[in-house]
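Extended Data, panel c. Modelled sequence:
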Amino acid sequence: MLLVILSWCYLFAIALNLGLASSRFLKLQLKNTATLLFTGLFSVAILAGIWAIFGRIHWEFQLALLLLNGLILLWNRHNVGEYSGAFYLEFQSISKPKKLLLGLLVLTYALICSVPAYFPDHEIYYLQTVKWLNEYGLVKGLANLHLFFGQTSGWHILQSAFSFSFLGLGLHTLNGFCLLVANWYAISNTENPKTAVFIPIANILLFPFIAVASPDLAVVTIGFVIFHLFLEAFDRCSAAQFHTVVLLCLFVVYIKITAAPILLLPLFLWIHHFKVLAKKVVVGYVAALLVFGLLVVKNTLLTGYPLFPMLAFQDTFQLDYALPPEIHTFAFNPARRFDFFISHADYQQLDGWQILIRWLFFSGLGSVLNVAIVLLMLVVPFLKAFAQLKYRLLYVAMSVQLLLLFATSPQARFILHFAVFFAVLLVAKWIRDKKKVVALGGISCVVLLSLGIFGWHYPSRNVAFSEQTFSLGNLFIPAADSSLKTSYYQASIGNLDYYSPDANTYIWATGNGPLPCVNQKQLQYLQYKTGYIPQLRTHHLKDGFLSVKATRHDPK
């Protein structure tokens, strides 16, 4: 826990310094701590994304980041000193119960980040994705080794910048810090005290994502701040407010491309205040081009497709390491997008309405969340706030996100940012007493502390976790990165030597195995389905991977 809190102090200092510098350089006029910190994190994510194109995100990047922050601090020391005084006054202005709640939140999230993580995607590709970034940066054709590695997110890039792997730590504390920042926003936002309802709701829904490098938590927390900034700017919007919304929305898209409908919000602002903003959006254009360019380069390097998972421009580049169309078709056909709750045979026989019913009721916890989201969509139009155009436009953006969810992969976490925001509005209608909200936040922290200490498992039918719980040593040093119940052995296929989890491990899982790590069952399965196997492009891992047609001499 102590090491986690120290890493957060470092994160706070770096993000705040870069956030203040960005605010001054771009004339954003940022004063709120949360927006400053998220803008600073966005700056680090962009810097790390550029760095990863050319090399590993290791001690060299950390040294460059420290030197850059030192130079910025010398240039911007007056603003840093001015903000420090303002932040002290902001902290002093909140009530004692809220200060106690904030302290409890710090302890709760630090403990959760210190105990073993039990989240399937963490063991399937989060750990390995960050590990590849730390050791090699963005590797050409990495998706050929493991399909999921092609989904490297801007959030994974940012996490790799703060994992401190070169110290032998491998920390995954960024999500805990991000949720803490959003909670501070909810606690300190005196202009709209109802936002404090976010704390217990976020604790309940986002708990499984706190100790892993999940982009979903970042989208929810940053999205929560964006929605409030959008509402504040809608009636009277300055160029600074508009650019703040644009930058944070681009950050969300850089983190998770499926959250692209959030870009409708700055578009709505631009249309609504066209006369004011038409000639003052240069910063937004430049930032959008930069983010789009980084996404294209990242996708091209990892998969060979600039707009992955779309196959557009595949004939334009014709890269030797591009993911073969046969593998892409197998991975992204409609039936596979729904296969976590419906079989291929059922998908062929059922109509759209029957598939929707299956989605609503396919499992216990998932069904509760799915039904809640559908009910929320039905209830929101009856809220009093819905009479205002700005809330209706937010609802339009949520509806577009819901349509995108069904067109890609119908997983509730892809719309969780909108769902959490409107859930806060709904709950705030019945819980208006600030003391009750703080009490609920405290109760949710106690529940999370208990789960962290006594152990919990994310419900998974596939990934087997080892039995680990909180130990006294975790008060100082976090638990091991991986909780995957497995051992590793070395295997080879063609010119590729790799490490595989044991035969009892879920086919897509890799855990924290040595690089390159991929499940032998996965390679055999894809060879059977597509006829391809991964191979090294050269004799060096840093030069990447390609897929080749298997021959009879390739081991089965």
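The CA atoms of residues 30 and 401 lie 28 Å apart. This feature is highlighted in the accompanying rendering.
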